[in-house]
Design brief:
- The relative contact order is 0.14.
- It contains 19 helices and six strands.
- 71% of the residues lie in helices and 5% in strands.
- The chain has two domains: 369 residues; 73 residues, no CATH class.
- The chain is globular.
- Helix 2 runs antiparallel to helix 3 and helix 3 runs parallel beside helix 8.
Length: 536
């Protein structure tokens, strides 16, 4: 059991490292793709070549980020088969569908059109090139949609049923899977967080140029577009984060209790812990600074609902564990004799609590019916995620979100007033803001994934039961290999980004503007007709 626990922990660390490395690239890809589309739309409408230069330059940085994002993301899907084979068997019929659609629909779309976006400037008309840029943006965000539908199922499994004959979960309603509130809320929140990331990235680099006195017109216009794009996204990401928190509070009360450091059920209207020091062993916050009456309306959207604490959630878990034990025992009998009608009836009666029965199997591996009260109590404690990292990751994410919103509001105001040149303190601050959205995104994923523990599929499949049976030595070797390889990828990303940022935008981004033969509706750039056409 100790060896198995070590393998599971190493498998979790390896996958967490892979995800966190990969997720350094994802938000910038999601946001920069649509920011490029916005810039190019302005170019097509106005005909001003500076916007073409802007698209071309920021597209270079997008391409670097996109390429390394693909490289770091490919291995993740293989890890489901290599390190999480039990999980893959258990939920593969459901989890594999959105991932397959993501590859066929979204990844092929963005991979096909990214080449046209980068190299098609003197091959395509303005309108057709703009369509290619929008196709890249659409493909990037559709890719996120399908991946988050898969992850949403892990957070809140819907539209499925467990088949005791195949020992697999089977999909019963595909539209319900796609339109799961968890998946849709997570997708919108995640994609818009990417828009904020891209906006601050563009503003930070543009501010660097202004401080150096280089590419001033380019930098000012980049800041203006990014600030307007980002300030709307920052407002939306906070509002939609509230919506995601509401969904999580209903579907995953244990995650909510960890996020808010709630040990005893909070009577309405409960106060919000701005900061606290959760102590899971003592089952209390040794220090807390609380704002009264805020938490209940924030997470329940009412003033009269209780928010269950860890103590009550563990009591519920014990009840479900006791109900799940007969389901596990009946499942074992069905594996020995699929025609055992009595065992099937028992299983159907208790199948909703099967996951909790599997949770206690860790402490009674030979026969769960022999589980003692101590085993059940320990399994109930396991049903609560680690409170400290979830609590503080959530607050880091929220604090970063409000800091970014304030920064983007200032960027918008200063840009619209034309006072950026005089705000040297703001220009010095802007490059230092670039890491903030990445920190917020990483913290958000820590909340989502650690907050789901101890489940791989919430309340259905425990994490301890999901991993493959590798040796400890193999896991250590592969973990070190992944960390070294991905660290090299990060170094390559930083080197290439810094190299092209230092070079800056070029005066001739893509060769001569295509002639009117490329687009019968668009007159040649620079002609008198072009000015009229650009105004509609």
């Amino acid at each position: 059991m100790d060896n198995l626990a070590t393998v599971v922990d190493l498998s979790r660390i390896q996958f967490a490292a892979t995800v966190l490395y990969h997720y350094l690239f994802v938000p910038l890809t999601l946001g920069l793709s649509f920011l490029l589309a916005a810039m190019e739309t302005i170019y097509v409408i106005s005909g001003r070549d500076i916007y073409r230069r802007m698209v071309h330059f920021w597209a270079k940085l997008f391409a670097i980020n996109f390429a390394l994002g693909v490289a770091t993301g490919l291995t993740m899907e293989f890890q489901f088969g290599t390190n999480w084979s039990t999980y893959s068997h258990f939920v593969g019929d459901i989890f594999g569908a959105p991932l397959a659609i993501e590859g066929l629909m979204a990844f092929f779309l963005e991979s096909t059109f990214v080449g046209l976006m980068l190299f098609g400037w003197n091959k395509l008309s303005r309108g057709k090139h703009l369509l290619a840029t929008y196709a890249v943006a659409l493909g990037s965000n559709l890719s996120a949609l399908w991946i988050l539908i898969a992850n949403g199922y892990m957070q809140n499994p819907v539209a499925s049923t467990f088949n005791p004959e195949t020992m697999r979960v089977e999909l019963t309603n595909f539209p319900a899977l796609v339109f799961s509130p968890e998946a849709q809320a997570k997708f919108v929140h995640t994609s818009i967080a990417g828009y904020v990331t891209a906006a601050i990235f563009v503003i930070g680099i543009s501010a660097f140029y202004m401080l150096k006195g280089r590419h001033l017109e380019f930098a000012k216009r980049s800041i203006r577009v990014a600030a307007l794009f980002g300030v709307l996204a920052s407002l939306a990401v906070i509002c939609l984060g509230d919506a995601l928190g509401f969904v999580n509070g209903s579907a995953q009360p244990t995650k909510l209790a960890a996020m808010e450091g709630i040990w005893e059920t909070a009577e309405p209207p409960a106060g919000f812990n701005v900061i606290a020091w959760p102590d899971q062993s003592a089952r209390e916050n040794t220090f807390e600074l609380k704002v009264p009456y805020v938490l209940t309306p924030l997470v329940t959207h009412t003033m009269d609902k209780k928010i269950p604490g860890v103590d009550d959630l563990e009591i519920r878990a014990k009840q479900r564990i006791r109900s799940g034990i007969p389901a596990v025992a009946a499942l074992r009998k069905l594996r020995e004799n699929p025609d055992n009608d009595q065992a099937l009836a028992t299983f159907n009666q208790h199948k909703d609590d099967l996951g909790y029965g599997l949770l206690v199997k860790r402490y009674a591996p030979n026969d769960v019916t022999n589980a003692t009260s101590a085993d059940i109590n320990q399994a109930a404690k396991d049903s609560i995620p680690p409170v400290f990292p979830v609590f503080w990751s959530f607050r880091i994410m929220v604090a970063a979100a409000f800091a970014m919103m304030a920064f983007l509001i200032m960027a918008t105001v200063y840009s619209m007033r034309g006072t950026l040149d005089r705000k040297r303190w703001f220009l010095r601050l802007a490059p230092w803001m670039i890491p903030v959205p990445f920190i917020a995104n990483e913290a958000g994923w820590i909340v989502a994934e650690i907050g789901r523990q101890p489940w791989t599929v919430y309340q259905q499949l425990p994490t301890w039961l999901s991993a493959s049976t590798h040796s400890v030595g193999y896991m250590i070797f592969s973990l070190i290999g992944f960390v070294l390889l991905y660290s090299i990828f990060i170094a390559v990303e930083m080197y290439l980004m810094i190299k092209f940022i230092r070079i800056g935008p070029t005066d001739d981004p893509g060769g001569p503007e295509p002639s009117t033969t490329a687009d019968d509706d668009a007159p040649a750039f620079g002609s008198p007709e072009a000015a009229l056409w650009s105004r509609g």
